[in-house]
Amino acid sequence: MRKKKLSHQLVTHTKDAVLQLDANLDDQTGEGLGYVMAQLLAAGAYDVYFTPIQMKKDRPATKLSVLGDPQARLALTKIILSETSTIGVRYQTWQRTIMQRHFETVTTAYGPVQIKVATYGDLTKRMPEYADCAQLAQTQHVPFNTVYQAALVAVQQLKSEE
Amino acid sequence: MRKKKLSHQLVTHTKDAVLQLDANLDDQTGEGLGYVMAQLLAAGAYDVYFTPIQMKKDRPATKLSVLGDPQARLALTKIILSETSTIGVRYQTWQRTIMQRHFETVTTAYGPVQIKVATYGDLTKRMPEYADCAQLAQTQHVPFNTVYQAALVAVQQLKSEE
Amino acid sequence: MRKKKLSHQLVTHTKDAVLQLDANLDDQTGEGLGYVMAQLLAAGAYDVYFTPIQMKKDRPATKLSVLGDPQARLALTKIILSETSTIGVRYQTWQRTIMQRHFETVTTAYGPVQIKVATYGDLTKRMPEYADCAQLAQTQHVPFNTVYQAALVAVQQLKSEE
Amino acid sequence: MRKKKLSHQLVTHTKDAVLQLDANLDDQTGEGLGYVMAQLLAAGAYDVYFTPIQMKKDRPATKLSVLGDPQARLALTKIILSETSTIGVRYQTWQRTIMQRHFETVTTAYGPVQIKVATYGDLTKRMPEYADCAQLAQTQHVPFNTVYQAALVAVQQLKSEE
Amino acid sequence: MRKKKLSHQLVTHTKDAVLQLDANLDDQTGEGLGYVMAQLLAAGAYDVYFTPIQMKKDRPATKLSVLGDPQARLALTKIILSETSTIGVRYQTWQRTIMQRHFETVTTAYGPVQIKVATYGDLTKRMPEYADCAQLAQTQHVPFNTVYQAALVAVQQLKSEE
Amino acid sequence: MRKKKLSHQLVTHTKDAVLQLDANLDDQTGEGLGYVMAQLLAAGAYDVYFTPIQMKKDRPATKLSVLGDPQARLALTKIILSETSTIGVRYQTWQRTIMQRHFETVTTAYGPVQIKVATYGDLTKRMPEYADCAQLAQTQHVPFNTVYQAALVAVQQLKSEE
């Protein structure tokens, strides 16, 4: 199981402020919510997530949360209002502490895997990219965890050689 | 704060087996689920509860669970099939260990409160009835917990006099 | 299945800012939480919802969230402090994008149903009111979805005639 | 908005018994769980769903549940054991009440939509297929709900002509 | 069952603003999250809680939330970045309404129990401390609720003597 | 980073049937539930977990689930009835497929870590023990994941030498 550092991509710059949009939905189906998640991600939302909540009149419900660029507020709001049953969207801005990121590539017995390298002060984390591990697992007919752990081992060996 | 034991109602007999009906719902609104809970309870279900689940295609969903008399299976199934979007209902039977129950009444400074007395072997639990506490809290303009705790105190005093 | 536009009610005006009050509760029963939801809604809260959370020492817990008018903060806070076990309530204000709303009425084979009409720019949504559908379903002995879909059809026919 | 009944596909036959496989996972990432859901569905599981649970030592966890053909137990079990961190899978069989199903097609202003028709005794439900509505919504650049409701209207008109 | 007021501890002063740090985690195990909860509490976080959420690509996930002193932001952030897979932490500040607190002690048949006394204007709540009740329950071999309710009774008697 | 196989412990034998006990709780605090989880684990339950559910009358609630030896049913039932507010416990038996397990030990730069080795047919999984990693992380002042990944690397090297 050999590994090779193939490339250093550019550092990803990120903003310090992130917009959160929230809507509580008790008259929307789960099917429709899966659809709107895809629309919001396609429109550039950083993250879309659902939280199970409980609303009045014994209604199980879902809170839709969208994180994104504050500049994208109107575009994201319009998708939520168009694609869900809500009549209102609330929003606020959070500050963020973000690690700087770049990508390295290691080679495993199953093929190359990109590694996300995140740094903050003297802290560095290296994490195998899900998409690469998943693709190799499927094409090589091995469990996902086998590829993922092989990538972790390649990362450790890379570090011990530095 | 005085209390008086007002009555001993008959023991509630319960069956040893309980039916569970389950349906996973990803194309049903929360509004509609609140409605079906009421219908199922009105039809004699022992208990109806919702569990938040996550289904395929990024869909937040709800598992509807109904506990009831095995004899009531067809009636409860028909309500689920009529009132929800599901096309199937799965079911099984659990065994149950049930404490024997009767009701006593204590008097608090806010009025009388029924106490559920549950026994199983040498174990006895006494628990104030929610509905009584809630009604007294509203009519007497005191917090619910104030009435509930007053009922607990009355219960303890009753026990210490026995 | 005929429909008739019966009335145009006044547009509902809404504020741009909404208060959120939150409290994490690990020493409160679910019974008591159902009670406090009713108290908060009766006191004018816009929305009350529960989120299942997990707190320290292996405790399943509930986050109580209340949305309301910023002017109502002290009144809502007092209810939370009186009716729950929490010793603190945290709060913040969100901005909101709200669609303008008015109500129309359509007639279905089961009776009249109010339709909430929500508009925002060139977007218009028409949604049958739950309470009307639920009442007709019960009095006419048909499934809730039958009435709801009949109202949707009446809405579509109304739109195609405009 | 016209509609036309295009076809009657064969009734889908279904078994009366369904297998449930469960595993509690506290040492598995969500990324890996999304992967295993896809593997299980590809292997013929009827349904795969996740339930948020809380395990010992303050661990948020996920219960993986798989519904499938009792004949597929070993194949599904092997995927769970290979692709997740669990060392055990528990299983049981539920009985099921299943509505008979066939598909019809209606034509909306946005294109044709398959309708799932489910029958059980004198109960008949017609529900637009998600995949068709989603595809038309994307290609016609209209909200998902617009297509879905158009399909519901076409269904109602079909029924009133019968 | 006698009780005695043993002591009045000093009022606990609390700040009006509380920091919230949030991170969405889909590539972290539950085991690791239990570990980080302990680290954060040991570092002085006021509260740490987990919310089950649903992220893209069919991933069950957990939102880690930390409440703490705004002065502790960097220290708490560093623990989250070191001990979890997240590459970013978002944060905001809430205002708080906090009841003033001091502790009293009552004596029950099982031993002494500290009572948290919380006051806000004319509202006073007295709540038995969990740790004391749990310890007495274990050493006296009685159910937790037996000790808890005995403490509540002692509290009520104390109040009626004031 | 060297590793050494220190020992092969005996295979853990496990039963094919596992008991599940369930109780729905809407009148119990989270504090008390954390307490009962500890009691049940101390009494030999294999696993105890909580599922957030939603019960009637707008009550957030918790389903307590206990997995254990069918022989332990009465003992576990008695704890649930004594320590919670429920008046009934339902139970059933699942079949189980269990991987055979033994433990190996690897040595990392931070100290020795036990590895759980699970086998089923031609499938073998090796997973670092949480408790060992957590203890080393705390005593060596490094992140939990650093120890965990070092153990994974040691496992991989062990396998490549076999």
UniProtKB/TrEMBL annotation, chains A, B, C, D, E, F:
Name of this chain's protein: Nickel insertion protein
| Gene3D superfamilies assigned to the protein according to its UniProt record, in alphabetical order | mk0293 like domain (3.10.20.300), Transcriptional regulatory protein pf0864 domain like (3.30.70.1380)
* EC number(s) reported in the record: 4.99.1.12
> What PANTHER family does the annotation carry?
NICKEL INSERTION PROTEIN-RELATED (PTHR36566), PYRIDINIUM-3,5-BISTHIOCARBOXYLIC ACID MONONUCLEOTIDE NICKEL INSERTION PROTEIN (PTHR36566:SF1)
A Pfam family annotated for this chain is Ni_insertion
In its keyword annotation, does this UniProt entry include Lyase? yes
Which GO molecular-function terms appear in the entry? lyase activity
Mind telling me which InterPro entries this protein's record contains?
Answer: Ni_insertion
Transmembrane parts of this sequence: none
Query: What keywords sit in the KW lines?
Result: Lyase, Nickel
Q: Which domain of life is it from?
A: Bacteria
